[in-house]
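Worked problem 6 (solution included).
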Amino acid sequence: MLREDKGNLKVDERLLMNSLRLLFVISVFLSTVVALSYYHKIAFQTGYAITSKINVNTASVDTLSLLPGIGPKTAAKIVAYRQLHPNNKKTFAKPNDLTKINGLGKAKIERITPFICFE
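Solution. The predicted structure is:
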């Protein structure tokens, strides 16, 4: 886009900067659309919108089942694991701690991480 003619150099630089700004705005818009569509997909699939983070150390089977990709069986496994470790108030302190549960791999944990907390 740069030309030998110095008179056109400023025009080309402005065009490049405006193109980069437009690309940035489009990328922010698209990432927002993707995030919102994922949120609405979860709300549609479960019939509920997750409006606050779910504490995996205290949530019931029904509440844990609201998480994307977590069914009643996996939710029951999480609750059962917590009950097997009653002396530890924070059975799970970080997302990777959930790998202790059979059926919860890295991909599923990454999928639910935005919706969970460990307080």
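Discussion: The chain has two domains: 6-46, 54-117.
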